[in-house]
What we know:
The complex is a heterodimer of chains A (81) and B (655).
Chain A: H1 3-28, H2 43-73, H3 77-80
Helix pairs in contact in A: 1-2
Chain B: H1 7-26, H2 34-39, H3 46-57, H4 60-73, H5 76-102, H6 107-112, H7 118-151, H8 155-203, E1 219-224, E2 241-242, E3 254-259, E4 262-270, E5 290-295, E6 297-301, E7 307-309, E8 312-314, E9 327-330, H9 343-352, E10 354-364, E11 370-380, H10 381-384, H11 399-415, H12 420-423, H13 432-461, H14 474-482, H15 484-521, H16 528-552, H17 558-572, H18 574-582, H19 588-607, H20 610-617, H21 632-649, H22 651-654
Helix pairs in contact in B: 1-8, 1-15, 3-8, 3-13, 4-5, 4-13, 5-11, 5-13, 7-8, 7-15, 7-16, 7-17, 7-19, 8-13, 8-15, 8-16, 11-17, 11-21, 13-14, 14-15, 15-16, 17-19, 17-21, 18-19, 18-21, 19-21
Amino acid sequence: MSTNTLLGLRLFFFYSLLYLGFMFLCTFQPQVLEWCPVAGINLAIWYGFGLIVSAVVMAFVYGWMCRSEEVAHEPSPRRSA
Amino acid sequence: MTGEVSALAVVIFVFFVAITLGISVRLGGRARSSQGYFTAHGQIPWFVNGVAFAGDYLSAASFLGICGMIAFYGYDGFLYSIGYLAGWIVALFVIAEPMKRLGKFTFADALDAKFQSRAIKLVVGISTLVISLFYLIPQMVGAGALIQPLLGFDHWVGVLIVGATVILIVVSAGMVSTTYVQFLKGALLVVFSGVLVAMLLVRGLKTADGGLDGYVFQELGPVDVEHLHDAFEKTPLSDAEILPSDGPWKSLPFVRVRRDGQTHYFYQQPVAPLADASNSIPSQGGTGARVMLYEAQSLVKGVDGSFAVNGQQVTTKPARYLHPVGYVTELPHGATSTGRLNPLTFLSTIQQSEIAIVSNSIVREVDGTTTTIYYPRPTSGSQILLPGGYFQGMRSKSIADKLNFLSLMLALFCGTASLPHILIRYYTVKDAASARKSTIVGIASIGTFYIFTLYLGLGAMTSGALDPTDTNMAAPLLAKSISPWLFAVISAIAFTTVLGTVSGLILAASGAVTHDLLCGCLGIEMSDLHKVRIAKLTSVVVGAIAVGLGILFKEMNVSYLVGWAFSIAASSNLPALVMLLFWSGTTWQGIVASSAMGMLASLGWILVSAETFSKIYGLPATDAWVPFSQPGIVTIPLSFATLVLVSWMTQKSTK
């Protein structure tokens, strides 16, 4: 399994846990989502925004880490010359 | 009154359609080979492809359906935004690069790369067709819904215009023109949604007692339920007769008042505690409970096909005669207006306010008359911003209801990475790294848009502009409440939204027929030119079928059918693809069995579910054969299990 694939699976697993946690709260503990931790906005909104923003952030992290791997595998111009 | 035609909207709409057709004609020369027609020669720049992902994915269900669902039900519409975006995580982290490495034209290519099996081409080609058609129907229905208020045409005319335009786009330049139309649409949709949100925040919130047409809805009480007459004492209805709550009206939360041959309807809500619609109304048996009465609107359809709106006979398009609805009844600290808000204070203000959200109830009389009551339901913002407004089963103790919700969210999570029109976009870039980069751009664009949907939906809910009969028009009507030109632009963008997604779907379907079924499965030899001709012909046929289905399913909710497409895609495609990538024991027989099982099981489950019984067959939901409507939680694991079992049984024969 390539490093890219392994990284992708790790990030996928982490995001799936976040998503599952949200589903669990919505379905079995909805009263927890009424709590307003900050700015007078409830946890349902914060968690929903969190899932969207973390997906975007993790996508960029994945893209950045994969790119560095490609650069590492590229042959050096000096050596190949 | 709602739904008046705007000349500016017509001009901008025609301008947008002309641009999309112009792009198609200009790029026509680049699609003469099958490589060009199906994959744009793999030469689309990754950034353009990424934004085109957004244009492809943000369909009528996302823009019209989600905003409408939030406007009418609150937070639950946002659950779709969360689920739709989460699905891209599967696409990026698991699917993107292998799809690009394995495939050439279609999703079946990727699954078949290792085995060269005709059976795989057949099953996956058919599943691609089924999913594309299920996804096409709501897009066409959405187009019809848009064209009515925009141009004043009937629903079928809108469907026909979309069908004809899309067929022209796809036939002229295949994936090249489709990509650039989707790029244009994706960029415009995200940018103008942002503009709309910014203008909404600058406008802020204010209290009202009716919609934008200035009509004031009566609010009477509080009054003792045993003395409802007292509520009408100082109104023109003081000498009216209160009709008994019998027949189909029994146990419904409405008070009917009759005067001069005209019936007026009021929604009654218990005064304390502040309640949602699920709360029962105290009986009139002398409990001493007090209620508020809120004036409702009525649309009566007679057995002879005649219509009466709020007691007045109308001849055509009755929805136009209803008053617009959706407004704030109370702001925090007794304020009447907030002025400019920021993204956080907008949400916290909504949370502390009370909003008259729109509900409806359909009552069928014994004589065949159907009365639809549209009533304002004052609801606290803290309730609106919690899940459970639409998926009421979440708050029930029924395990089946909870499973139904979990099943939908699982289908959304797994379905995105299995949608054929999304998967083929991995072949339009040059390599795996470009596929990955374009997915990241797609996620960023789509994620930004989904954050906006919450503001657009809540903005529409409080705009005073909602058409109570049409959940799909919430976002364009919010724009109308801010500025006529914004309404025109947003409506035209919504229309191109449909064009972009439908183009991608028709292209995926034509690829499945030409490349997978005719060439791959039946083994028909074709020259490159012949292949493109057949693909174009298939596009015309699929487009024509989509037009027919769009007219036939006019009454269906846009988001509802998309949920079906996601379930079928997630059950049929994802298990086979994931197992092929990560389990070396996968056999071609396993893939065929898994895809067929996933497709048939999810389709079968949907056809015998409660929602289909009530919304399509017109039968009681209690007669359904399965305990909940969303199939994913059963059929996705079933498809995985089938693949493992059949692969295990066929290991020797394959070796």
